[in-house]
Amino acid sequence: PPVMLVELLFQAACVSLFLSSGQGRVYPARKKPASFAVERRRVGPHVCFPGSGSGCCPGWMLSPGSGKCTLPLCSFGCGGGSCIAPNLCMCPDGEQGITCPEPPGTCGEYGCDLSCNHGGCQEVARVCPIGFSMAETANGVRCTDIDECQSAACEGTCVNTEGGFTCECGAGRELSADRRSCRDTDECQATPCQHRCENSVGSYRCSCRPGYHLHGNRHSCV
Fold first, then answer.
1. Which listed CATH number (2.10.25.10, 3.30.470.30, 3.40.50.720, 3.30.830.10) goes with 132-184?
2. What is the Rg, in whole angstroms, of the alpha carbon atoms belonging to the chain?
3. Which of 2, 59, 81, 192 is at 20 to 30 A from 122, Cα to Cα?
4. pLDDT digits (tens, 9 = 90+) for 177-191
């Protein structure tokens, strides 16, 4: 009997040791860290740096409606087409590329008032500035300056300018209000004389009151 008691105690000790070993212990499952892709989808597509500015990846911009990075950017412009992906345009002819060719036009050096539309050229008028004449060339419309002095009625000297002309008068004369005719400049308005001033065409003359005579400088009175 003592031998059997020892064997029973030994078996019980073995079972207790097995149950208390690491093989029988159960650990709770460790939570996996959220991946960057999951975080990116949570705050919006095409986001590279969440929380810092717009955070949009290169080639994308924020959509005004959703506030997410869903609008593609085309650096070279799509002209009459539309931007469907970063630097990828869908053109009116159905072709795709980094940009769309401009439609054939007659825009020349000055011939068109141009309206920029996403990098494209839109012709809105075929006129030349005032003072220029328009001529059709192989490269479109070209505007050349008109020499108004060929027909301008200046009383003095006519000077042609780009897009217009000016009239000039000689010494002692000035332009009238019509900017074409000349009139005498009244130098006496600048009071060059000490006592009296008499204006003349293109010049003036000083004189003195009784009891004074004109100085040698022809302006002062002694």
1. 2.10.25.10
2. 47
3. 59
4. 888 999 888 889 888
